[in-house]
Specification:
This protein is of the alpha/beta class. Helices cover about 30% and strands about 20% of the residues. Helix 4 packs across helix 9, helix 7 crosses helix 8 and helix 10 packs parallel to helix 12. It is globular. InterPro entries: FAD-binding_MO, FAD/NAD-bd_sf, Flavin_mOase-like.
C-alpha cells in the first residue's frame, strides 16, 4: 500500500490555506475522525489546531510511513488482461527537478477531492494593473503580509470571506466585504455547552459518540427543514441575522439572498463574529459590482470608489475532478462526464477505482469515512470471491443528474466535467448521512458489482439522459 501526495508535507487544506482566521466551517465532532474524536472545546476549530490533529492521527496509526511526498499522479491506465493499474507519476526532487516514474497497483483510490489546489477562481478585473496596493488570493496567502492599520477590501461573501473579514478587522483600519449578491450567513455558538456537559458526565468514548450523533441529527434535520419549508427557513435565518446585527434594513439589503437556504452552502460564523465586526464599525458590507480597479482601490458600478491598501480576491475555488488524473481503460480514454457514480464512491466503466467525495450539506469527512469503509468492504468481497477486478454497471433507464446539486457559481462553472449521479437507488448521491450509513455499511454489494473478465470491461447498459 502507498499513499501518493503531490505536496511536500501532509495536511492538505489545513496546511495550504494560511489566511488570517482560517477555520473549519463544519463542527469538529462530525468533521473529526470517529475512531479518534476531537477533544477541543470549540465546535469550529482554527486551521492550525486541525492541522496538528490530522498529523497526530496519521503518526499514531502509522500512516506517515506510507506517504510518498512530492509525487503527483499524472495519468492512470487500467489493463483488464493484467488486472492492474499503471500510474504515470511526476516526482519532484529536493532540488525542484521533476522526473517521471511508473507505479502499478491493483486498486486505485482517489482522495484528492474535487478542488484545484494549484489554481483558484480568479475573475478578470479591468484595470487591476493600475492598482497601487497589494492584491492577494486566500489560496496563496503571502507570508508576512502586514494589514495592520490598513484599508482592506475583501471581494466575495462565501465561507472564506466571512472568515477573513472579522479576523482582519481586529488589526486593520477598516475592512469592507464587497459582494455581488448576499449569501445566507448564520451565527452559531462558539462553544457547545451540551457537548461540554455530556463530556463532564459520561466516559469520553460514550460522550463523543453522543455529541457526534447529536450534531448529525441537527444538521440533517435543519437541511431537510430548509429543503421542505424554504419560506419558513428564510424567515428564521433573517430573524437570527437581524438579532445579531441589530439593523433590519442592513439585513434586508446585505444578508437576504434571492436563493433559498441550502440551494448554496450555508456559511456559519461562530458567536456571530462577522455581525459583531459590522455592528461595531470595524467592518462594513457593500453589495455592488466591480466596475474596475483604480490606483486608489476599487471602483464600483454605482460609481463609488472603495479606497484600499490591500484587496483580497476571495472569489472561490475551481473544481477539478479527482486531482486532474487522466484515466484510460484498456486503451480507451475515460470521459468522466459520461459515467455514473455508484454509492458515492465508485465510477461506472472504471474497474477497481474509487473516489472520495464529501457532503455539501454536512461535514466532508462524514461521507469520506463511509466511502473508505465501502472500499474496504469491496476489497473484502473481492478477496472472498476470488475476483481480481470489479466494476459497477448502471441499470437501464437511469436518468442523469449533476453530481453536486448546488447552485453555487464554483459548482456550475465546472460540474459538467464530472461523472454524474443517477435518480434512484445506489446511483443517487444523497445528502443524508443516516440513510447513507445504513446503505453503505449493511447493504449487499455482490449483486451490484460485476467481475471484470480478462477480455475487458463490459459496456454500461445505458449512459443516461
Amino acid at each position: 500500500m502507498a499513499v501518493l501526495e503531490a505536496r511536500d508535507v501532509s495536511g492538505g487544506t489545513w496546511d495550504l490555506f494560511r489566511y488570517p482566521g482560517v477555520r473549519s466551517d463544519s463542527d469538529m465532532a462530525t468533521l473529526g475522525y470517529p475512531f479518534r474524536p476531537w477533544r477541543g472545546s470549540r465546535p469550529l476549530a482554527d486551521g492550525a489546531s486541525i492541522l496538528e490533529y490530522v498529523r497526530a492521527t496519521a503518526a499514531e496509526f502509522g500512516i506517515e510511513g506510507l506517504i510518498r511526498y512530492r509525487t503527483k499522479v499524472v495519468a492512470a491506465e487500467w489493463s483488464s488482461a493484467e488486472s492492474r493499474w499503471t500510474l504515470r507519476l511526476a516526482v519532484r526532487g529536493a532540488d525542484g527537478g521533476v522526473s517521471e516514474r511508473v507505479l502499478t497497483c491493483g486498486f486505485l483510490y482517489s482522495c484528492a477531492g474535487y478542488y484545484d489546489y494549484e489554481r483558484g477562481h480568479e475573475p478578470v478585473f479591468p484595470g487591476v494593473e493600475s492598482f497601487g496596493g497589494e492584491l492577494v488570493h486566500p489560496q496563496f496567502w503571502p507570508e508576512g503580509l502586514d494589514h495592520a492599520g490598513k484599508r482592506v477590501v475583501v471581494i466575495g461573501s462565501g465561507a472564506t470571506a466571512v472568515t477573513l473579514v472579522p479576523a482582519m478587522a481586529r488589526e486593520a483600519a477598516r475592512v469592507t466585504m464587497l459582494q455581488r449578491s448576499p449569501t445566507w450567513i448564520s451565527p452559531v455558538p462558539g462553544r457547545d455547552r451540551k457537548a461540554e456537559r455530556l463530556r463532564a458526565w459520561l466516559p469520553e468514548r460514550v460522550a463523543s459518540r453522543l455529541v457526534r450523533w447529536k450534531n448529525i441529527a441537527f444538521s440533517t434535520a435543519f437541511f431537510q427543514f430548509c429543503q421542505r419549508f424554504p419560506r419558513a427557513a428564510r424567515g428564521l435565518l433573517t430573524r437570527v441575522s437581524a438579532r445579531a446585527l441589530r439593523d433590519e434594513a442592513a439585513v434586508r439589503e446585505h444578508f437576504t439572498p434571492s436563493y433559498d437556504p441550502w440551494d448554496q452552502r450555508l456559511c456559519a460564523v461562530p458567536d456571530g463574529d462577522l455581525f459583531g465586526a459590522v455592528r461595531e464599525g470595524r467592518a462594513e458590507v457593500v453589495t455592488d459590482h466591480v466596475e474596475s480597479f483604480v490606483p486608489e482601490g476599487v471602483r464600483l458600478r454605482s460609481g463609488r470608489v472603495l479606497a484600499a491598501d490591500v484587496v483580497v480576491s476571495a472569489t472561490g475555488l475551481r473544481l477539478l475532478a479527482f486531482g486532474g488524473i487522466s484515466l484510460r481503460v484498456d486503451g480507451r480514454a475515460v470521459e468522466l462526464s459520461e459515467e455514473f457514480v455508484w454509492r458515492g464512491a465508485m465510477v461506472s466503466g472504471v474497474p477497481n477505482f474509487a473516489v472520495c467525495i464529501g457532503y455539501t450539506n454536512a461535514s466532508w469527512t462524514l461521507r469520506a469515512d463511509l466511502s473508505s469503509r465501502l472500499v474496504c468492504r469491496v476489497l473484502g468481497l473481492m478477496g472472498r470471491r476470488g475476483w481480481s477486478a470489479v466494476v459497477p454497471v448502471p441499470g437501464r433507464g437511469l436518468r442523469a443528474r449533476p453530481l453536486l446539486d448546488l447552485a453555487s457559481g464554483y459548482v456550475q462553472r465546472s460540474i459538467g466535467a464530472f461523472p454524474r449521479q443517477g435518480d434512484r437507488g445506489s446511483w443517487r448521491v444523497r445528502q443524508n448521512y443516516p440513510l447513507d450509513a445504513v446503505a453503505t455499511l449493511r447493504g449487499g454489494l455482490a449483486r451490484e458489482l460485476v467481475p471484470v473478465p480478462v477480455s475487458g470491461v463490459r459496456s454500461p447498459a445505458v449512459t443516461g439522459s
